[in-house]
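lol so apparently i was supposed to do this last week
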Amino acid sequence: MSKRTSSDANGISSAEPLYERMRALAKERVSKKRFKHMEGVAGTAERLARSYGADPYLARLAGILHDWDKDLDNDQIRVKVHEMGIQGEVGEWVVRNMPQVLHGPTAAAELERSFPDIPAEAISAIRKHTIASREMSDLDKIIYIADALEPGRRFDEVQELRSMMGEASLDELYYEVYRFWIQALVDKGCLLHPDTLAIWNDLAYPQAHERLLAYERRCKEKEHG
Ligand SMILES: [Fe+2]
Ligand SMILES: [Fe+2]
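anyway here it is w/ fe (ii) ion bound
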């Protein structure tokens, strides 16, 4: 982790030099509206980190940087994928058909290369904030959730999901937010990323498996009763 100059009782300081430097660069890079969203995600992520025992500083840093590349248009994103050499990692089909999800991986690739002070945990959360992954750390989940629930988000279900923050477990909250996003994508007729099925099956498996066992038990009881 980067060096800190001063810290408050929670071990975090707004005077953190890396955070302040990156925040200033992000502010210059994106539109006012986008930056407001990034600040909203940083604040929400920090709050979630405090609730769920993750590092508030890393949560804030990943939050303020997560949409570093979101203002690039589709062609600029495609060029950047090739410049960063990550076309193999993200897949040509996705580059062609879902360029809007690539701002996470391109931002992570650039930030990792250009700012080696940024801790790997924050880079991972930035990379995974669009598509998620079958392997999500607590910080990855926190950024994914904060992106959906920051104060600027206005969709119908947002209040109910926000009310779970700090009440439900991190996994329950992540499950509900992920479920909400894929439902919203299908409702809009959007493509789903090829990894989405495997991610969803991992998340839904425990409950779905429980139901299957209960159903099979009932069938057997009927057979024998
Ligand atoms: Fe994003
Ligand atoms: Fe975002």
